[in-house]
């Protein structure tokens, strides 16, 4: 299974080329003084691997969260271990995921999912009653009517992780969001309506660290603090609130996962989150078997192999010297180079030409 918008990106590129086919690169030969006009060749076709590499190198990663609190008599950064990754999912991919989540919700309403997979409690007060869909294991948030304590219920069966969610997991590992030593084998979908929330808590150690949460549909805040105060239904206050952009991935590890509590106050509008976690092996459900297609996932290298570099050759035509009109669509090679812009990312940067029609792309030259 692959992402649907990969082909759409190529279609957008072709449409852009067709809108402005008249651009040329002009250069003057230093030896003959002749005007050399290079016809722009069509955009090189990128392989799926090359497209993935470009997107991977454009991911923005924030790892410098700081919030100092006194813990056991010492001042510590309680957000140590938090990471926020953006640019992991395109708009088309997010739509596909959201549509699939809503289809799962409809399946749950029709009774087509296992009993403990889909839960939709009645809303008896503001902030209570968000829909949850669990895969891989059944996690019990509180003592249930059968007297089961909070934690993974090893004797309860839920549906396995869907194929689309496995695609997400593979990307999270390949794109250096989660380490290959901590590939998720369970996930929980939260479907929020306006006013729904998640109360203050620290995630159970039935799940190993790190784990992550992906946000969809709308931005909201997640609040952290060693002491979180409840001011009312869905109204919490803590030491720091961190915005979670649409499509972002928040990784919780270290102090950010184990020392400080977190919560999601009442959301202002509809929201979907998917939390991916790896179970402690001693807490796995009875009869649990690892997913074969989630084994052996390796992160992408930051340097592409030289044999996979992209080289675009541009045939040149020679013309006699002639005046160049300023109002034409002719541009000099020098001006094209000066117009290039750079985007910088934490720790790693990827330089992508502002005008991709006129610049040679070398994907292996980092």
Write a concise keyword list for the protein shown above.
366 residues; alpha+beta; Jelly Rolls; eight-stranded antiparallel β-sheet; four-stranded mixed β-sheet; 24 strands; 18% helix
Description:
This protein has helices spanning 5-19, 48-57, 91-109, 163-174, 254-258, 333-338; strands at residues 24-28, 35-39, 60-62, 68-71, 74-77, 83-86, 118-119, 131-135, 139-140, 151-152, 186-192, 198-201, 211-216, 220-225, 229-232, 235-237, 240-244, 249-252, 261-264, 271-277, 316-319, 330-332, 343-344, 349-350. With 366 residues, the protein is an alpha+beta fold. The strands form 7 sheets. The protein has an 8-stranded antiparallel sheet with strand order 3-6-18-13-20-11-8-7. The chain has 2 domains: 5-46 and 310-350, no CATH class; 61-294, Jelly Rolls, CATH 2.60.120. The chain is 18% helix and 27% strand. The protein has 6 helices and 24 strands.
The string of secondary-structure elements, in order, is HEEHEEEEHEEEEHEEEEEEEEHEEEEHEE
- Amount of helix: 10-25%
Percent of sequence in beta strands: 25-35%
Count of discrete domains: 2
Strand order of the largest sheet: 3-6-18-13-20-11-8-7
Question: What is the terminal separation in angstroms?
Answer: 30 Å
Number of helices: 6
Radius of gyration: 26 Å
Secondary structure: number of strands: 24
CATH level-two architecture of the largest domain: Sandwich
| CATH class value of the largest domain | Mainly Beta
* Derived structural class: alpha+beta
Instruction: Assign the CATH superfamily of the largest domain.
Output: Alpha-ketoglutarate-dependent dioxygenase AlkB-like
GO molecular function, one term: demethylase activity
Region (Disordered): 1-20, 310-366
Domain Fe2OG dioxygenase: 183-280
Biased composition (Basic and acidic residues): 324-334, 353-366
């Amino acid at each position: 299974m692959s992402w649907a918008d990969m082909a759409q990106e190529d279609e957008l590129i072709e449409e852009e080329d067709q809108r402005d086919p008249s651009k040329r690169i002009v250069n003057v030969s230093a030896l003959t003084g002749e005007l050399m006009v290079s016809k722009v060749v069509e955009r090189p076709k990128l392989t799926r691997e090359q497209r993935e590499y470009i997107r991977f190198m454009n991911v923005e990663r924030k790892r410098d969260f700081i919030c100092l609190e006194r813990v056991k008599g010492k001042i510590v950064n309680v957000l140590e271990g938090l990471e926020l990754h953006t640019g992991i999912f395109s708009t088309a991919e997010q739509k596909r995921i959201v549509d699939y989540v809503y289809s799962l919700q409809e399946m749950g309403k029709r009774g087509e999912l296992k009993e403990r997979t889909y839960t939709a409690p009645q809303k008896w007060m503001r902030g209570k009653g968000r829909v949850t869909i669990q895969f891989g294991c059944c996690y019990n948030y509180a003592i249930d009517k059968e007297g089961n304590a909070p934690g993974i219920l090893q004797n309860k069966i839920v549906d396995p992780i869907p194929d689309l969610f496995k695609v997400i997991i593979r990307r999270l590992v390949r794109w250096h969001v989660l380490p290959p030593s901590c590939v998720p084998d369970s996930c929980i979908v939260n479907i929020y309506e306006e006013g729904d929330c998640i109360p203050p808590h620290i995630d159970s150690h039935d799940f190993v660290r790190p784990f992550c949460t992906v946000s969809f549909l709308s931005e909201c805040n997640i609040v952290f603090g060693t002491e979180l105060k409840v001011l009312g239904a869905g109204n919490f206050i803590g030491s720091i609130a961190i915005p979670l952009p649409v499509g972002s991935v928040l990784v919780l590890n270290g102090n950010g996962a184990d020392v400080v509590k977190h919560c999601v106050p009442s959301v202002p509008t509809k929201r979907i989150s998917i939390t991916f976690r790896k179970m402690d092996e001693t807490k796995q459900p009875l009869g649990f078997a690892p997913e074969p297609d989630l084994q052996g996932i390796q992160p992408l290298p930051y340097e592409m192999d030289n044999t996979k570099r992209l080289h675009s050759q541009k045939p040149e035509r020679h013309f006699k010297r002639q005046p160049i009109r300023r109002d034409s669509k002719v541009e000099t090679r020098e001006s094209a180079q000066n117009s290039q812009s750079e985007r910088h990312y934490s720790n790693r940067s990827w330089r992508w030409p502002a005008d991709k029609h006129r610049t040679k792309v070398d994907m292996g030259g980092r």
